[in-house]
Design a protein that fits this description.
alpha+beta, six-stranded mixed sheet, two-stranded antiparallel ribbon, 6 helices, globular
Length: 216
């Protein structure tokens, strides 16, 4: 990962992001969605702060088990994407609302196979769906955002079936919270967290409802 990341789409205000017209209606308990939006450190930092998210694990999806390790994935030749496996309680936050935060804060979905200075298919924007209902809701929301002209450029997020999720190495887990002064975290994750707090205060866990959020 590079030490700087220019993601102009993150300047798009909340007011331009409509609520999903189509959503899943899941029972209370625990559901999951696997999302890819560039560096998994930063996507994890954003989504773990959302009220209703039970846990988030960084990892890899889209490639074979034998190459699901950081060194191989960083080559950009394995087919994997850096992803986060998000477990959430639908009684507190819906699948569609998680997508809304994902598209508005966690990454810029108009950048093809990159996020800022992080370049390669391993940094692609993708929703790895487990069910056809997930695919349909994600597809509908992408169409809704494009039709609303939220971004000046078209959304390039891929919808890929989740065949397997491979957890990343232990040192990647909860990385932003454990390394808040690491240069990449300061340059990339911190601005996303600041936007999250300022634009989605009603979606945050109490410990993140602060004007100067700590990533811990």
């Amino acid at each position: 990962m590079s030490d700087a990341c220019n993601i102009p789409g993150l300047t798009v205000p909340r007011s331009r992001f409509p609520a999903p017209e189509k959503d899943l209606h899941e029972p209370a308990g625990e559901s999951r969605v696997v999302l890819a939006g560039g560096c998994f450190w930063c996507v994890e930092a954003v989504l773990v702060a959302i009220d209703g998210v039970i846990r988030v694990e960084s990892g890899y999806a889209g490639g074979a088990a034998e190459a699901a390790n950081y060194e191989a994935v960083c080559s950009g030749t394995t087919g994997h994407a850096e992803v986060v496996d998000v477990h959430y309680d639908p009684a507190k936050v819906s699948f569609g609302e998680l997508l809304r935060v994902f598209f508005s804060v966690a990454h810029d979905p108009t950048q093809l196979n990159r996020q800022g200075n992080d370049i390669g298919s391993q940094y692609r924007s993708a929703v790895f769906y487990e069910t056809d209902d997930q695919r349909q809701v994600a597809e509908a929301y992408i169409r809704q955002l494009d039709a609303a002209g939220v971004y000046f450029d078209p959304i390039v997020t891929r919808l890929e079936p989740l065949t397997a999720f491979y957890p990343a190495e232990a040192y990647h887990q909860n990385f932003a919270a454990r390394n808040p002064r690491q240069p990449y975290i300061l340059a990339v994750a911190a601005p996303k967290m600041a936007k999250l707090v300022s634009t989605w205060p009603d979606h945050l866990k109490p410990e993140f409802s602060d004007d100067d959020p700590d990533l811990a």
